[in-house]
Amino acid sequence: MSRHFSSLLAIACVAVTLTPTAAQAKPVEEVDCTQVKCIALTFDDGPGQYAGTLLDTLKKYNAKATFFLEGQYVKARPAFAKRMAVEGHELGNHSYKHPNFTTLEAPAIRSEIKKTQDIVKQVAGVEPKLLRPPYGMADIETSDIAAEFGMPMILWTAGSRDWATKNEAEIKKQTLEVAKENGIILMHDWVKQTVDAMPSIVRTLQSRGYHLVTVSTLVKQYNLQPGDIFPVPEGWEK
Ligand SMILES: [Zn+2]
To answer: Is the pTM of this model over 0.85?
Structure first.
């Protein structure tokens, strides 16, 4: 075999190997949380005014997060919502104006959810697959309505208490203290000190072996159904 022919063959092999890979769109999430250590950071009530800085940090460390958005702020800050989607984060539904669903009649709950689904889809091009009821307050009626929308309800395993302390060192300390495998951590991108603490929090979690993933990636292992609530709160009966 001439040298020319063998190098042509080598090129052909490379082309055959690479072409199908290059042609496939890269999946957004490849992490399997049954195989590696995962944690999901969640940011509520946004897009908050500091979302841009937060997104820069997440991008820098290749970390994914979930944003439980209020429709009213998606309308006010559409560019942030769009950027969240483009950069591979998850956009969840956190109502339109943050009422306590357990005090509302069914049509009002439906309207809060629907308006937020619509505005997120309009500005970010994606439809939220998860619902986080405001204040984490839900009852059977909320669950039934979530099921109508095809969404499970996602609460949290622990909070950063950022809204209460508004102190960068405290937020970091609390978050790292409550962080655990398959944890879902409640935070807020309208708390400046949270966003300031994020580079250090992300670096520390990653150095402890955590993959920072979206909630959907994390809960895939639990096979949640529409209307389910996770984690199941104490006293919850269905
Ligand atoms: Zn909230």
So the answer is: yes
CB within 5 A of ion ligand 1: which residues?
44-45
Distance, first Cα to last Cα, the chain: 73
One-character DSSP codes across 115-169? HHHHHHHHHHS-----B--GGG---HHHHHHHHHTT--EE--SEE--HHHH--HH
Contact 175, 32 (CB under 8 A): no
* Known active-site residue 89: no
Q: Kindly state the tokens that stand for 13.
A: 């092999």
48 CA distance to ligand 1 middle (Å): 11
How would you classify residue 21: left for phi > 0, otherwise alpha for psi between -120 and 50, otherwise beta?
alpha
- The bridge status of strand 158-159 relative to strand 153-154 is unpaired
CA dihedral 29, 197, 47, 225 (to 10 degrees): 40
The DSSP letter of residue 237 is: -
Q: Quick check: is 44 catalytic?
A: yes
Catalytic residue among 45, 94, 162, 188: 188
Place of tokens 């957004």: 28
Whole-number pLDDT of residue 150? 98
- Which is more confident, 95 or 14? 95
Q: What pLDDT digit, counting tens, does each position of 7-45 carry? A: 444 444 444 444 434 334 444 558 999 999 999 999 999
Q: Under the phi-then-psi rule, with left for phi > 0, alpha for psi from -120 to 50, and beta for the rest, what region is 43? A: beta
Predicted confidence band of residue 6 (pLDDT cuts 50, 70, 90): very low
Question: How high is the pLDDT of residue 231?
Answer: 97
* % residues pLDDT > 70 (the chain): 87
